[in-house]
Amino acid sequence: MTAPNALDHVRPVFRRILLWAALLAVGLAVVGGAVGLVVAGTPGLAGGLLGAVLSVVFLGLTAVSVLVALRVSKGQMISGAFFGIVMGTWILKFVLFLVVLLALRDRAWVDFPVLAVVIIAGVVGSLVIDVVAVAKARIPIGVHQPGDAVDPGNDTPRP
């Protein structure tokens, strides 16, 4: 029997994060779009909807990058492939975020303050989602308890 790797335990957590992110995006689009429409008219609606889309895209990229990195690194979180994929995605997200903000800076069809508030709400919401999903996850950490039988060729404790 082979020892389970991180991919076996982390995949359900990140799937849950992606599902909750989709629900967050719908909530942001509805609330952000409605408040933006009331506050700033059509440009506010556009800012709210665009902020919701950007929030969920950037949140989703993080979760997807971790899942891809775990698959490529065969579940080993301590590997160059894992860190390269995750950090490369974060750098790409940062650059894309700056490019999008600079491209939308002086556009009349989008209200920039509404866009910013919805993006900030999306970031805070995604942090809450990450914390709650990881806190509720049941991920073994591989600590041996006194009295656990350990197979000499495999450091996974046996029941």
How would you characterize the overall build of this protein?
The chain has helices spanning 6-72, 80-104, 112-136; strands spanning 149-150, 157-158. It is an all-alpha fold and 159 residues long. The chain has a two-stranded antiparallel ribbon with strand order 1-2. The longest helix has 67 residues, at 6-72. The chain is elongated and about 65 Å long. The mean pLDDT is 85.
Task: Write a concise synopsis of the structure shown.
With 159 residues, the protein is mostly helical.
What global shape is seen?
elongated
Count of helical regions: 3
Class from helix and strand fractions:
mainly alpha
Task: Indicate the radius of gyration in whole angstroms.
Answer: 20 Å
What proportion strand?
Answer: under 5%
What share of residues is helical? over 70%
Low-pLDDT runs of 5+ residues are none
Indicate the mean pLDDT: 85
Largest sheet: 2 strands, antiparallel
Distance between the termini: 13 Å
Compute the number of strand runs. Answer: 2
